[in-house]
């Protein structure tokens, strides 16, 4: 992970471009198609990835689409990459709901965050028939026990995912987590579910779409309350998985359809979910610890075969 401390909402598009290119010049010796590969995150988009790819290619004196992922399709981006994080969360929700006997079509869902992942997730669930009863952005939150009109909100949000500033009847982020719902999805920033609010959460399933939204103490509290917590390392893996798919396609020079991408993603994530959930049940541990055990075991086994241990 890396980034620039700035607020692109206060910058012109030309300033963002110059900053993006300057960032690549600063990190160029540490990254590359066979070293470390950047990908989109908060306040970035495919245009920024395109500028960065172009700058690296200029420095490398070779067209290097595999240097970065999340690019526009015309520059070697993958079909479905823009919504892959959200689709991965949907797959995790479906698998978790199945274990708890919940039909997603009848579920009440709260989503913290209405950026790239949160907005696509809300749209996916809305189209599936679920009631999205709460959403939030950086300025506040909206709640409707009968379900929010997601299409209406998407039509009115700005490029940074802001929409609540258009409404007078809003609630706080604290109140958002207290909404009576079946599934809670933190899809914003880190450390949002803590020991101070974990007891107030009414959802029976929490699916982490953001990176590190739940503190260790809150994880313990939720687990003791029999809340099924699907950790970020699994639930938010859709984006990084399709980034890998994009890199593979760049290397092959052959590109898949969106249906192929989504099918491969679904296969990967369902297999991972099954493995982690089964271990968590057998060991009577939370899914985060189970995911770490699976990952460390695979890494240790690879190291042993290579003679590192």
From TrEMBL:
Acetylation among keywords: no
GO molecular function, one example?
A: glutamate dehydrogenase (NAD+) activity
Residues annotated as coiled-coil are none
| CDD domains reported in the protein's UniProt record | NAD_bind_1_Glu_DH
Keywords for this protein: Oxidoreductase
Q: Which family does it belong to?
A: Belongs to the Glu/Leu/Phe/Val dehydrogenases family.
Biological process GO annotation list? L-glutamate catabolic process
Please state what the protein is called. Answer: NAD-specific glutamate dehydrogenase
Keyword Phosphoprotein appears in the UniProt entry? no
Q: What SUPFAM superfamilies does the entry give?
A: Aminoacid dehydrogenase-like, N-terminal domain, NAD(P)-binding Rossmann-fold domains
- Glutamate/phenylalanine/leucine/valine/L-tryptophan dehydrogenase C-terminal domain mapped to chain residues: 78-307
Taxonomy, superkingdom? Bacteria
One Pfam family matching this protein:
ELFV_dehydrog_N
Show the InterPro entries listed in the entry. Answer: Aminoacid_DH-like_N_sf, Glu/Leu/Phe/Val/Trp_DH, Glu/Leu/Phe/Val/Trp_DH_C, Glu/Leu/Phe/Val/Trp_DH_dimer, NAD(P)-bd_dom_sf, NAD_bind_Glu_DH
Q: Which organism is it from?
A: Staphylococcus auricularis
Q: Which reaction does it catalyse?
A: L-glutamate + NAD(+) + H2O = 2-oxoglutarate + NH4(+) + NADH + H(+)
């Amino acid at each position: 992970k890396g980034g620039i401390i700035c607020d692109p909402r206060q910058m012109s598009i030309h300033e963002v471009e110059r900053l993006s290119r300057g960032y690549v010049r600063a990190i160029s010796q540490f990254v590359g198609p066979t070293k470390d590969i950047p990908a989109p995150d908060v306040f970035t988009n495919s245009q920024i990835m395109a500028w960065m790819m172009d700058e690296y290619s200029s420095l490398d004196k070779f067209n290097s689409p595999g240097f970065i992922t999340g690019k526009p399709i015309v520059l070697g981006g993958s079909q479905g990459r823009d919504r892959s994080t959200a689709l991965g969360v949907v797959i995790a929700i479906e698998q978790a709901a199945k274990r708890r006997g919940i039909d997603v079509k009848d579920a009440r869902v709260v989503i913290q965050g209405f950026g790239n992942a949160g907005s696509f997730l809300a749209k996916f669930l809305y189209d599936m028939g679920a009631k999205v009863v709460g959403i939030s952005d950086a300025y506040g939150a909206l709640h409707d026990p009968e379900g929010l009109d997601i299409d209406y909100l998407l039509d009115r949000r700005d490029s940074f995912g802001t929409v609540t500033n258009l409404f007078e009847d809003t609630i706080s982020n604290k109140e958002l987590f207290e909404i009576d719902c079946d599934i809670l999805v933190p899809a914003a920033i880190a450390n949002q579910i803590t020991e101070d609010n974990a007891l107030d959460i009414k959802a029976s399933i929490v699916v982490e779409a953001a990176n590190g939204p739940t503190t260790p103490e809150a994880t313990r509290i939720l687990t003791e309350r029999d809340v099924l917590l699907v950790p970020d390392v699994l639930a938010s893996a859709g984006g990084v998985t399709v980034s890998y798919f994009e890199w593979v396609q760049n290397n092959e020079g052959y590109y898949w359809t969106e249906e192929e991408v989504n099918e491969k993603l679904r296969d990967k994530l369902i297999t991972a979910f099954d493995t982690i959930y089964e271990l968590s049940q057998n060991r009577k541990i939370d899914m985060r610890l189970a995911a770490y055990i699976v990952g460390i075991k695979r890494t240790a086994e690879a190291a042993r075969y290579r003679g590192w241990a």
